[in-house]
Write a structure and sequence with these properties.
It is built from 4 helices and 22 strands. It is mainly β and 350 residues long. A hairpin with a 2-residue loop joins strand 3 and strand 4. The longest helix is centred in the middle third of the chain and has 11 residues.
């Protein structure tokens, strides 16, 4: 299927807001927690993107891959004007998709959710490129039920296909065989140095020593659960799918497709004489083919130019975390049992 066919009048797309977790509520908010109205414009357009030395035209939101950041507070009203073909919810179930060239306005108030969600296309495999973060802060005059982070960083896991993803899934449907696997996983749209010709496309997170960062993790991969770890660092899990959980500490996460998780990362002090790989790879226990590769980003400490340690940090070693084997069912089961047993409501008022 050529690029022109993707946006032809016969081609339909749908858009699911926040993986079904966010619903359109009546525009009524109590005066005590009255929010504001936030406006966004989404234009569906083709964009030439190069990864793995392969350039292709992909469907994007506003020409961005991953898509643009949407932010709001609980109680805010979101008005999103979308041009060229998305509809809310699963296509042909909640409503018919919007025809290409048409517009649709999402108009809803965020109620009962705060945390990290995401927006993505919801027909066929367009969600391979059409996705972006949706961040919902607490209501005004309310705070997090954990230490206030120095900085918040969205981290989106995804997949890259050199082939046209619509052709991949259509071939699978026609033959009855499993779809061809992706050519790479991505971290914020970048595959990283473990793939051929991709070292220049590596996500780098620069941090300051002795600070607490809130990493907003989003698994936008099509079907794969992923392990995630940062060498020589641990996380405190504080939220899953926009619901606060009782905090627990781990150095390796498991995140399912479509899932979001917020974690606190406390950086070391003083700055260590090293940089650190951030790795994600699949957790897979079934039959069939899958992308058995690893995406890598880099965590790098910033130090002042007048720091006494700056000389020793010019060429620091790059450390790699230990990762579970692909089918580490014991680890996966133990990790997945933690959130249900600890997801009791937590007060988040000041």
């Amino acid at each position: 299927m050529g690029a022109s066919a993707l946006l032809s009048p016969a081609f339909l797309m749908t858009f699911l807001v926040a993986v079904g977790c966010l619903m359109a509520y009546p525009e009524v908010v109590t005066a005590k927690h009255a929010g504001i109205t936030r406006h966004y414009k989404f234009n569906i357009k083709l964009k030439n993107i190069t990864r793995l030395s392969h350039t292709k035209s992909i469907v994007t939101v506003n020409g961005k891959f991953p898509g643009p950041l949407v932010i709001a507070r609980e109680g805010d009203r979101l008005v999103v004007k979308l041009r060229s073909g998305w509809a809310d919810g699963p296509s042909y179930i909640t409503q018919c998709p919007i025809q290409t060239g048409q517009s649709y306005v999402y108009n809803f108030t965020i109620t009962g959710r705060r945390g990290t969600l995401f927006c993505h296309a919801h027909i066929s495999w367009l969600r391979a490129t059409v996705y972006g973060p949706l961040i919902i802060f607490p209501k005004r005059n309310e705070s997090y039920p954990f230490v206030k982070p120095y900085k918040e960083v969205p981290i989106l896991f995804g997949e890259w296909f050199n082939a046209d993803t619509e052709a991949v899934i259509n071939q699978s449907l026609q033959t009855g065989a499993g779809p061809n696997v992706s050519d790479a996983y991505t971290l914020n749209g970048l595959p990283g140095p473990f793939y051929n010709c991709a070292a220049q496309d590596t996500y780098k997170l620069k941090v300051k020593p002795g600070k607490t960062y809130l990493l907003r993790l989003i698994n936008a991969a099509l079907n794969d659960e992923l392990f995630f770890s940062i060498a020589n660092h641990s996380f405190t899990v504080v939220e899953a799918d926009a619901v606060y959980v009782k905090p627990f500490v781990t150095n390796i996460l498991v995140i399912a497709p479509g899932q979001t998780t917020n974690v606190l990362l406390k950086t070391k002090s003083p700055a260590p004489n090293a940089t650190f790989f951030m790795l994600a790879r699949p957790y897979f226990t079934g039959m069939g083919t899958f992308d058995n590769t690893t995406v890598a980003g880099i965590l790098k400490y910033e130090t002042p130019s007048n720091s006494s340690s700056s000389t020793s940090l010019k060429n620091p070693p790059l450390l790699k975390p230990g990762m579970p084997v692909i089918n580490a069912t014991n680890f996966g089961s133990n990790f997945s049992s933690k959130p249900p047993s600890s997801s009791l409501p937590i007060s988040h008022k000041k």
